[in-house]
Amino acid sequence: MNNDSSFRIVEELRTWIATAPPGAKLPSTRELVARHAASPVTVQRALRTLTTQGLIESRPGVGTFVRAVRTAQPLDYGWQTAALGSPQSHIPTGSATMRPTPPNTIALHAGYPNQELLPERLIRTALSRAARSSAAVTRSPVTGLPDLQAWFAAELAATVPVGVTPPTVGDVIVLPGSQSGLSSVFRALVGAGQPLLMESPSYWGAILAAAQAGVKVIPVPSGPTGPDPDELARAFEETGARAFYAQPNYANPTGAQWSRAGAQNLLDVVHAHGAFLVEDDWAHDFGITTDPSPVAALDDRGHVVYIRSLTKSVSPAIRIAAIIARGPARERIIADRGAASMYVSGILQAAALDIVTQPGWHTHLRGLRQQLRARRDLLIDSMNDHAPTAHLTGIPPGGLNLWYRLPDTIELPRFVRDCETNGVMVASGTEWFPAESAGSFIRLNYSGINPGTFPDAARIIGHVLTQAS
Ligand SMILES: Cc1ncc(COP(=O)(O)O)c(C=O)c1O
């Protein structure tokens, strides 16, 4: 009711303003209240809307006036073309996976788990506890709250085999999500113009961060158990690269997991080339049929720079992650973090720590495993039933996504558009390839929406595939 009245007042005033001279004084709030039989709150809301739209301005103690400068024409930003010059390289502005979902559309394109897969009760309790703690009013140390650093170090240390020195609290740098950590690592350890090896396909955000850092990405083909060590060795030798970005556990988009033996072989190649492995452990909490096995646990010589995110498992709103790095590399990364953001919100760190140290956290993770398994299998079954010409590249042992190859005759951009027109958003695989894609792929996320919609989604995908073939 109030919203309707405020809308009506806005419309009437807009009509009046359209013919009023700049600087004309609006009727007082009291007059507007009387004229529109509305409450003062409703009138104030209408005035705020008009202010936001740039049509009026209020001068405290004097009144509200029609703005003197009104935009009759589109604003001209042409001067920026000259000031900015050409971009260093073509950098995409974002990913289609971050697009909002229109109403009545089934969203399989996005990457974030549904609220029902989050530890909601733990989150709300932790946030209110953190709000009452000193973390709410103090600055966090640059590398993070010591107790949270200790938690990240201890989690990795728990998987370190005998004979390898575990990481320490001082090796941990807390981050506001791992995305900005990737940017820091690429800037600090690789640098503009230098080569970086990357599994292909790989996370679009890593490709984007590398492009933004001016790093030259060299793809290394990767399969269901990771890249071939000989192929990796050849890429190091041919390019002179000193860093390799990879996701050994539940890779986005394929869900691939390196085998134990494979991980050791690949790490040996990294050692032999005096290089860094940038290990992105984004899906550590999303094992379904296996447990994650960080490669960083096998290295105590500072070759592995480990990035562990809590964003998707704790809460996208709390968004905490950490880098574990040793030696001078750690110092370089801290210097970059200082320039990028100085420190991470202490209240969010305190809340994240609270959540992952509750007994309920492990109970939650056990339940999550079952739910992800049920969702993954339902989407696979639905696709088998309704879209049999889409080929699942492998049943992922963990993660949040399925990676399908479509028949080569499919024109991918059109397929994705047609799916959306018919009510399903899927992610075009093109974004996950650092160079040309090796076929027509789509990524389907099984964590983000109500699984009851999976059969309908698969039916639509199958229909669009049939139409397009
Ligand atoms: C592989 C991978 N790394 C990093 C990130 C970014 O994580 P965060 O949300 O912690 O910044 C994502 C997010 O989707 C991801 O898929």
UniProtKB/TrEMBL annotation:
Taxonomic lineage: Bacteria, Bacillati, Actinomycetota, Actinomycetes, Micrococcales
InterPro entries documented for this protein: Aminotransferase_I/II_large, HTH_trans_reg/aminotransferase, PyrdxlP-dep_Trfase, PyrdxlP-dep_Trfase_major, PyrdxlP-dep_Trfase_small, Tscrpt_reg_HTH_GntR, WH-like_DNA-bd_sf, WH_DNA-bd_sf
Annotated ranges, domain HTH gntR-type: 3-69
PANTHER family: HTH-TYPE TRANSCRIPTIONAL REGULATORY PROTEIN GABR (PTHR46577), TRANSCRIPTIONAL REGULATORY PROTEIN (PTHR46577:SF2)
Annotated keywords: Aminotransferase, DNA-binding, Pyridoxal phosphate, Transcription, Transcription regulation, Transferase
A Pfam family per the record: GntR
Family the UniProt entry places it in: In the C-terminal section; belongs to the class-I pyridoxal-phosphate-dependent aminotransferase family.
Source superkingdom: Bacteria
A single MF term (Gene Ontology): transaminase activity
Name of the protein described by the UniProt record: PLP-dependent aminotransferase family protein
